[in-house]
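README: folding subset

This subset contains proteins for which both the sequence and a predicted structure token string are available. Records are stored as plain text. Below is the entry for Cytochrome c oxidase subunit IV (97 residues), shown exactly as it appears on disk.
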Amino acid sequence: MNTPSPSAAATPAAPSLAAAHGVYVFLLAATGLTWFLGETGAAGPAVMAVLMGAALLKGLAVAGEFMELRHAPRLWQAVVAGWLIFVTGCLAAAYLA
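--- output ---
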């Protein structure tokens, strides 16, 4: 007997190796930027905003690409993004206080 193959809509999309490589290069560049700012002794609210923004984007990239959150329900995506925004916002507020 021939068993029907699952429809294309029922199978999840395979992770893109090119997308993973792109995210990996972004993570390397963002880490290099934060390392450079730390090594040069850069300080101040503007530098803190760059560092917190880089940390937030790195967290979203890792969650989306490597933890496969981009395929998760929107509620989970919103919870993780909200948590990352909350944590980076609290750290920024503590720095500015």
